[in-house]
C-alpha cells in the first residue's frame, strides 16, 4: 500500500508544528515570489485599476515605452512589498481604484484574496495586509484629448 495521500489539499505552515527545516532539506521562499503572488491576487479583484504609487507607475510607464511592452504588461509585483519570515509573511499593497468602487469593500476583498493565494501557494501564514489607496481612476481619464485639434489659430 502506498503512503501517498490523494487528498488535493496542500498542507500549510500552520498545520502541525512545521519548521523551515523539512524532511530532506530546507525550503526558502524569496520575497519576490510572495510579492508576485500577492500582486496577481490583488489584480484579480474588480475595481482595482492599477498597482503602485504615482512614482512606481511613472517609472513603469517609461520602462514599458522603452522596452515597447515586451514584458507583456506591468510587473506583477509593482506596488507590492513584503516581509517574509520562516513561517509568516506581511504584505503592503499600493492601489489605484476605479471611481465608483466601495473602497472599504474593495480593500476587504483584496485582503481576502491575497491572504488565500499566499497561504495556499506558499504555506506561509499572512499576518497582515496593509493597503494604501494612492489614487482613484476617473472614467474620463482614459480619453485621449490629443485628437481634438489646436485650441487656437
TrEMBL record:
Recite the lineage of the species.
Bacteria, Bacillati, Actinomycetota, Actinomycetes, Streptosporangiales
Family statement drawn from the similarity comment of this UniProt entry:
Belongs to the asp23 family.
Give the range the annotation lists for the signal sequence.
Answer: none
The name this protein carries in UniProt is Asp23/Gls24 family envelope stress response protein
| Region annotation (Disordered) ranges | 1-28
Q: Basic and acidic residues bias located where?
A: 15-28
The protein's organism comes out as Nocardiopsis coralli
